[in-house]
Amino acid sequence: LENYEIGMKSDLLDRTLRFNATAYYSEISDLQTSRFDPSNVAFLVFIENVGDAEIRGLDAEFSWLPTPNLNIGGAISLLDTEITALNPQLQGVAVPEGSELPFAPEFSGSLRARYDFDVPALGGRGYVSGNARYTGESKSGITGNAFFVEDTAQLLYGRGTGLKIESEGGEFVGGGGTVFDSGRYVHEDYILLDVAVGVEVNDWRAELFVDNLTDERADLNINTLEFTPKVVTNRPRTVGLRFTYDVSR
């Protein structure tokens, strides 16, 4: 991996606004991936060099204090990725040249806010906070076997997976030389919302929180290293009460 970066760090508006940004360009040689191909090779998972790739990206973050009690922050990430050269041995297995890298959404971002206030009755401070995170679409894995896997699921279970597939414009050679369109499963975009309210009194803190407020079920990982995909999702809506005692004070 050869990586080139240029960035900035800044404090603005009488040091109430902090803004940092980094632009980068990365060249990857002999990109590695896990491969499971029992239809052509063996019932083993092994590592192969796929080829070369390029990444162009921009990361930025800010933190702003418009008032002494209010803190607003956020971050964004922009990505443009591409497989620039393919190992000839993986023609008909990996997605073709020009395809984007897996697990690399073109855009993702977050926005958070926290407001602090006095709680005279308890002799402490209270707060309310919220956090929103957006993750754009990305592809799963680098092997173009999604249509092959869907066909296998139909044969085994009589129905497909219901997951979104995007064609990559090439071919994937399955068992017995059967040719399928090259395609990958898609991690669809999602938004996660977290909220919390709490109070701090001396060394103690109590917080009521709700993570994943809208109970969004996001596909974090779609594993196609076996004949049928395995999907890992985020945690469902979680409501909890958290108590903290700081022993360092």
Give a short overview.
This protein has one helix at residues 146-157; strands at residues 2-12, 17-36, 45-67, 70-86, 107-119, 124-135, 138-139, 165-173, 179-187, 190-201, 204-211, 219-223, 230-233, 238-245. By secondary structure, the protein is mainly β.
Observed structural traits:
249 residues; single chain; three-stranded antiparallel β-sheet; mainly beta; nine-stranded antiparallel β-sheet; 1 helix; 14 strands
Largest β sheet strand count, sense and barrel closure: 9 strands, antiparallel
Q: What is the strand arrangement across the widest sheet?
A: 1-2-3-4-5-6-10-11-14
The total count of strands amounts to: 14
Number of helices: 1
Low-pLDDT runs of 5+ residues are: none
Overall pLDDT metric: 90
Rg from alpha-carbon coordinates:
23 Å
Helix content class: under 10%
Q: Report the structural category.
A: mainly beta
Order of helices and strands: EEEEEEEHEEEEEEE
Task: Tell me the fraction of residues in β-strands, as a range.
Answer: over 45%
Distance between the termini: 44 Å
How would the global form be characterised? elongated
Description:
- The chain is mainly beta and 249 residues long.
- 5% of the residues lie in helices and 61% in strands.
- Strands 1-2-3-4-5-6-10-11-14 form a nine-stranded antiparallel beta sheet, with no helix packed on it. Strands 7-9-8 form a three-stranded antiparallel beta sheet, covered by helices on one side.
- A hairpin with a 4-residue loop joins strand 5 and strand 6 (124-135).
- The mean pLDDT is 90.
